[in-house]
Amino acid sequence: MTYEAGQELPPLERRIGLADMIAYAGATWDWYRLHYDPEFVARQKLPAPVVDGQVFGALLVEQIQDWLGPRCFVHKLDFSFKALVFAEETVRCEGTVTEVGDDYLVLEQRVVVVGADGGVDRVAAGPAHARVLLGTPDGPGATSGTHSGTHSASGEAGAK
Q1: Which of 12, 51, 131, 134 could make a disulfide contact with 85, Cβ separation 3.0–4.6 Å?
Q2: Where is the composition biased (Low complexity) (predicted)?
Q3: Strands 120-134 and 149-151
């Protein structure tokens, strides 16, 4: 496949329900009540439980992997939180290729909350910047000693 600067990534859209948020809390052992307890968040004067910010990083990587397939490795990813996202809202990951190398891509992404009309209601996270190695994590494009995550035998990346 050929890549070009300015090329858009296929968007990833996901409705995040309360059941999804409870499952995520269980998977990550992050039981802060802000993320799943409607009574607790009502006392905080919030409209609904707040989506855990870690979810946005997972969705940004999912967007990249859905597009590039299993032979890509997200070498670096950073993003900033901009607005809260609440249970039952729909988010969309959007992105653009900003740099193309022989064995890597640099991407700029963002996560937006989708409004009732399908347009952007607000930006939840962004800008996000990702450097993606094409091939394998230890193959071409890898820079010795600069991996921002760990690599397991199964090929999955994890945070240090």
Answers
A1: 51
A2: 141-160
A3: unpaired
Nearest to 11 by CA among 66, 83, 55, 72: 66
Mean pLDDT of 75-91: 97
User: Does residue 123 contact residue 115 with C-beta atoms inside 8 Å?
Assistant: no
Superfamily designation of domain 12-137:
Hotdog Thioesterase (3.10.129.10)
| pLDDT attached to residue 140 | 56
**Residues with Cβ within 8 Å of residue 47, at least 6 apart in sequence:** 41, 86
Domain ranges of the chain: 12-137
Torsion of CA 106, 112, 114, 120, to 10 degrees: -90
Q: Is the dihedral of CA 148, 149, 151, 154 positive or negative?
A: negative
Q: Rounded to whole angstroms, how far apart are CA atoms 78 and 67?
A: 19
Tokens of 90: 């729909």
